[in-house]
Design brief:
Elements: H1 6-28, E1 34-35, E2 41-42, E3 50-51, E4 64-67, E5 76-77, E6 79-81, E7 84-87, E8 95-98, E9 104-107, E10 109-112, E11 120-123, E12 128-132, E13 137-140, E14 149-152, E15 163-166, E16 171-174, E17 182-186, E18 190-193, E19 202-205, E20 215-219, E21 229-232, E22 238-241, E23 249-253, E24 257-260, E25 263-266, E26 275-279, E27 284-288, E28 294-297, E29 307-311, E30 315-320, E31 326-329, E32 339-343, E33 347-352, E34 357-359, E35 361-364, E36 367-370, E37 376-380, E38 384-386, E39 388-389, E40 406-407, E41 410-412, E42 418-421, E43 428-432, E44 434-435, E45 439-440, E46 442-444, E47 450-453, E48 456-460, E49 464-469, E50 472-475, E51 479-482, E52 488-491, E53 494-497, E54 500-504, E55 508-511, E56 521-524, E57 528-531, E58 534-536, E59 541-544, E60 547-550, E61 553-556, E62 561-567, E63 572-573, E64 576-578, E65 581-584, E66 592-598, E67 611-617, E68 621-623, E69 626-628, E70 635-636, E71 641-644, E72 647-655, E73 669-676, H2 691-694, E74 711-712
Parallel strand pairs: 2-5, 4-7, 6-9, 7-10, 8-11, 9-12, 10-13, 11-14, 12-15, 13-16, 14-17, 15-18, 16-19, 17-20, 18-21, 19-22, 20-23, 21-24, 22-25, 23-26, 24-27, 25-28, 26-29, 27-30, 28-31, 29-32, 30-33, 32-37, 33-38, 34-41, 37-42, 38-43, 41-46, 42-47, 43-48, 46-49, 47-50, 48-51, 49-52, 50-53, ...
Antiparallel strand pairs: 1-3, 31-35, 35-36, 39-40, 44-45, 62-63, 67-73, 69-70, 71-72, 71-74, 72-73
Length: about 725
């Protein structure tokens, strides 16, 4: 082999010296307390793995543990007591992992990415991180340095948390002024603010303008019953998502739990498209803390499309009392399109006994102020909004407060605010109560406010107003109105649309004011519908098994239908009691139709002579007669007969006694049907009622009608 020349040897020597000098200079530039232990080492009180320290460096106050390299501090074990832990020196990314055996960091401040981007802190295995100092901080993404992450995955409990914080004004901050930082709590980890010390305690995500896309993720369990938990249930605790930043979020999934002490803020200082998401069975987010409650979604001008979303079986709880704070969604002008969405088999329990849930404005003290445009509350695809607590609601273990006993109302203020109850999939439910000095039920403050029903159920939690105000109720499909036993509720806002008003519950529903002019389809499945006049318009249907208490007239106009439902299996039929006058507008070429449907399964013939009452009217019956709804549209005069199903039926309009489905002392007269044997033509075919309708326990379905096909005169 040819030997190297002297010049080459000198060049190599010079290069080595240069590298040595550079390395020495770089090391000299390291701050005291910088980790130099490489990819593994013992986190302890010796100086072996720390640059610039001698003796027992962590025994004295004022020391800072720094991690400054991508291979630093992987699998650190032992115990360290330090005033600060800093991950990422100026311009250098770092990875610090507490993943040894019972590793404990006892410190006052943790900064992940204080002076550089893309730093990572991991707390796994059986490790613990204790932060205990006045004004203590756990910060991911300080200053303008983004892309940092903290992963807390060591399983913990309320009694033995993975990360615990104490001291005055303890703060968790993710993306104070920088973007795309994240805090992930997973694998059954437990992060807990013990509440020790004084001052407001905050969890802030995306605080400043430009602090975008930051996140807190709480998800999963350790497989042994410990679900990942973020517990900030200290007095005055504030969870703020996207004050001035955009697209920041908290996501709670796969059984994760968030417990917050008292205040919720999303988009509080011009931030937009920020959100809290709770998704999946067992996942929950709870804020409950007495009278120190704020609930701000879209608080200032320019705070748009911020939201709370509860999906796929998740639960969101909010509880409080008193009137000194505020509650609002889209609170001021130009805070637009903010919303709450509850979708699928999910539930929001909103129990604030002092202030209503206000959409398109803000309520505080005893006043509601209108705010932005297009803000909305959505309950879709079988979701539930519950605003009444009789003392049965529970919240996750480890929370020091409970949801209050009582109820709350909904107020729609602002411009074009809406409460959308149902989207045509399943039956979506809202249970509403009252808020003293504000409203009972749903209050539509302004004329363009809308309560939209599309297969939704509104249940009264207290007696009194159920829907009131200048706005309108729109029915796309069924609007199930449930007034429980002993309740007397009123709807006074105008009702329109092509859907059906379905009266449920044994209580009384009164249509008054603008609602008294309702002329759509109505089904009284239980209880009493009280009103002045009811007009059933062209193409609309009246049916039911309850009472219409009317001081005026129930008018069936040209083109309307009376739908009668029977059950040959149980030998029953609906009975609608009408306390006022009834008019069938079938004269001069007009037609009011009668449809007959059999909900029996299997279908059988009624015994000859069985009499069922359609209507018990206690005043007068005016106008003419029903028409068969079949293709021939034959008029059914008094004592005429027609064939439907497996029977021939005879109709009588002025019977003095009720059929087998009537009990009690007869008052007024009855429209009755009496069953006979078929005289020819064979039975008509039918389709059994769907099981979902039978499961309601009441005859309110819209199954296939058994329409009469033949008039048999003189029977």
């Amino acid at each position: 082999m040819k030997p190297k020349s002297p010049a080459s040897s000198l060049g190599l020597l010079a290069g080595a010296l240069t590298a040595l000098i550079a390395a020495t200079s770089a090391q000299a530039a390291l701050p005291a307390g910088t980790w130099t232990g490489g990819s593994s080492g013992t986190w302890d009180t010796s100086a072996t793995n720390w640059y610039g320290l001698t003796g027992t460096p962590w025994a004295a106050a004022g020391n800072i543990a720094r991690f400054t390299g991508s291979a630093d501090a992987a699998f650190i074990s032992g115990t360290i007591i330090s005033d600060q832990i800093v991950i990422g020196a100026t311009g250098v990314s770092a990875v610090a992992t507490l993943n040894g055996t019972a590793g404990i960091a006892n410190t006052g401040f943790v900064y992940v990415g204080a002076s550089s981007t893309n730093n990572t802190l991991s707390v796994g295995g059986t490790d613990r991180l204790v932060i205990n100092a006045s004004n203590s901080r756990f910060s991911v993404g300080g200053s303008t340095f983004g892309g940092n992450s903290a992963i807390i995955s060591a399983p913990g409990t309320f009694a033995a948390p993975t990360l615990s914080m104490a001291g005055n004004s303890a703060q968790i901050m993710v993306g104070t002024s920088s973007a795309t930082n994240s805090l992930s709590i997973q694998g059954g980890a437990y992060v807990y603010d013990t509440g020790t010390g004084s001052g407001t305690r905050a969890l802030s995500i995306g605080t400043a303008s430009g602090a975008d896309g930051n996140s807190v993720l709480v998800s999963g369990s350790d497989g042994s019953g410990n679900y990942s938990t973020l517990n900030r249930n200290a007095a005055g605790s504030y969870l703020e998502v996207g004050s001035a930043g955009n697209n920041n979020y908290v996501s709670v999934s796969s059984g994760g739990i968030v417990i917050n002490g008292g205040r919720v803020g999303i988009g509080t200082n011009g931030g937009s498209s920020n959100y809290e998401l709770v998704t999946g069975n067992l996942s929950s987010f709870t804020t409950s803390g007495g009278s120190n409650q704020f609930f701000d979604i879209g608080q200032t001008s320019g705070s748009n499309t911020n939201s709370i979303r509860v999906e796929a079986g998740g639960t969101y709880n909010f509880g409080g009392s008193g009137t000194s704070r505020r509650i609002g969604v889209g609170e001021v002008a130009n805070a637009n399109s903010n919303y709450i969405s509850i979708t699928g088999a999910s539930t929001m329990n909103f129990i604030h006994t002092g202030l209503p849930l206000t959409i398109g404005g803000v309520s505080s003290g005893s006043t509601t102020t209108s705010g932005g445009t297009g803000n909305h509350l959505d309950v879709y695809s079988g979701g539930t909004l519950n605003m009444v607590n009789t003392g049965t609601l529970t919240i996750p273990t480890g929370s020091n407060t409970a949801l209050p006993t009582g109820s709350s109302a909904i107020v729609l203020a602002g411009t074009t605010s809406s409460f959308n109850l149902g989207d045509g999939t399943g039956i979506s439910t809202a249970i509403v109560g009252t808020t003293t000095n504000f409203a009972t039920g749903v209050y539509l403050k302004n004329s363009d406010g809308r309560l939209n029903f599309d297969n939704g159920r509104l249940t009264a939690g207290v007696t009194g107003n159920l829907v009131s105000g200048l706005g309108q109720i729109s029915l796309t499909h069924e609007a199930y109105i449930n007034t429980p036993t002993g309740f007397n509720n009123t709807i006074s806002s105008a009702i329109s649309g092509s859907g059906t008003l379905v009266k449920e519950g044994a209580g009384t529903l009164t249509l008054s004011g603008s609602a008294a002019d309702y002329s759509g389809s109505a089904t009284i499945s239980q209880g009493t519908l009280a009103l002045g006049n009811l007009t059933v318009g062209d193409g609309k249907t009246l049916k039911g098994n309850g009472t219409i208490s009317n001081s005026g007239t129930v008018s069936m106009t040209n083109g309307s239908t009376f739908g009668y439902e029977v059950n040959s299996t149980s030998v029953t039929g609906n009975l609608l009691t009408i306390s006022g006058a009834v008019t069938l507008d079938s004269a001069s070429g007009n037609k009011v139709y009668l449809t007959l449907s059999n909900l029996g399964n299997p279908l059988t013939a009624f015994a000859t002579g069985t009499t069922l009452s359609l209507i018990n009217y206690t005043s007068t019956l005016d106008g003419d007669f029903f028409f068969d709804s079949g293709a021939g549209a034959v008029e059914l005069k008094n004592s005429d007969s027609f064939e439907a199903g497996l029977n021939k039926w005879t109709i009588v309009y002025n019977a003095i006694s009720g059929g087998s489905n009537f009990t009690g002392t007869p008052t007024g007269k009855f429209i009755n049907l009496t069953a006979g044997a078929l005289t020819g033509g064979g039975p008509l075919t039918s389709i059994p009622e769907p099981g979902s309708l039978l499961a309601l326990g009441m005859l309110v379905g819209s199954g296939a009608f058994l329409r009469s096909r033949r008039k048999v005169v003189g029977c």
